[in-house]
């Protein structure tokens, strides 16, 4: 279970705008799990108290569609039980042709929230979409 999966995608080093928020035009598309009590749209609602609930199987993934072309310089993830995460980008107007921008191996946290930030590029990399793949976890959920 991902009790909170929140992304902070910074558009530039000067204007640190979180483009992965619904309020900034982002949307979550193609999640692999759906629970009406904890939908994937919670990932980008800006509220650390809401979350996306996944099933107990891996991999899990979702795509964030930005409202504008983003220059992604870092990715921050708040979650529980995540172990291996890969983030890929797509610059096209449709979500295909993916390129890996970062991957993370998170430490075990005994069910406590995990907050990890990884730099992607000082200048940022252009992206119309980001695909987030949760390849494994520290528990079934």
UniProtKB/TrEMBL annotation:
Domain of life according to the entry: Eukaryota
GO biological process, one term: intraciliary transport
InterPro entries cross-referenced by the UniProt entry: Galactose-bd-like_sf (IPR008979), IFT25 (IPR033558)
Record's keyword annotation contains Isomerase: no
Protein name: F5/8 type C domain-containing protein
Organism for this UniProt entry: Aplanochytrium stocchinoi
A GO cellular-component term linked to this record: intraciliary transport particle B
Signal sequence bounds: 1-22
Entry keyword set: Signal
Keyword Signal: yes
Regions crossing the membrane: none
């Amino acid at each position: 279970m991902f009790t909170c999966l929140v992304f902070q995608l910074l558009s530039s080093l000067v204007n640190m705008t979180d483009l992965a928020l619904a309020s900034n035009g982002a949307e979550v598309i193609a999640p692999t799990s759906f629970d009406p009590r904890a939908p994937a749209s919670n990932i980008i609602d800006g509220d650390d108290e809401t979350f996306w609930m996944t099933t107990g199987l891996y991999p899990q993934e979702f795509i964030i569609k930005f409202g504008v072309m983003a220059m992604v310089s870092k990715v921050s993830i708040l979650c529980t039980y995540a172990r291996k995460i890969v983030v890929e980008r797509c610059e096209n107007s449709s979500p295909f042709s993916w390129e890996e921008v970062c991957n993370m191996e998170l430490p075990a946290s005994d069910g406590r929230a995990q907050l990890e930030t990884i730099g992607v590029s000082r200048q940022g990399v252009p992206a119309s979409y980001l695909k987030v793949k949760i390849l494994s976890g520290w528990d079934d959920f």
